[in-house]
Amino acid sequence: MTTRTVHRAATEHVTALTHILNHAIDYKLQQGDSAWGRSGWTEAGVQQSINRGEMYVIEQDGLCAATMSLSWQDEKYWGIQEPVAGYVHRLAVRDGYHGSGIGRFAIDWCLNQVIARNRRALRLDCDVKNAKLCAHYESLGFVRVATRPIPELGNYVASLYEKAVR
Prior knowledge:
The protein is built from five helices and seven strands, in the order βααββαβαβαββ. By secondary structure, it is an alpha+beta fold. The radius of gyration is 15 Å and the shape is globular.
């Protein structure tokens, strides 16, 4: 039986999470999606995110299989908002675990966190030009509610998605 858990990332996860994120960037670039940049993550950058309490690790049978960030505000992409949602960023699945349902598991975990905080929605964004990723999020029940150019990321236009929990 497969066992999956989610918990805050810690220093012992830095190397694995750096690998997962950099593989995800390579994959996204192959799809023409440069939303996460082109240069990749360093272990120091991952450690900084861990220190800020932003990163989570999804383990499957005791191995780091995916990572993500879950926060409770996101002014950069969504503007100033009432505290009604949780925001997922950098959901990345380790090579070899694609298609196993671990991404859906991570989203379901985030939805439960949103419910526990009495918020009404889970939000995320992806490159509007990444049709495959947009279709994937739509298949999970997310609805595109807007698009938003992010000038500091060049020609990136964020497709803003939301999934209601109630």
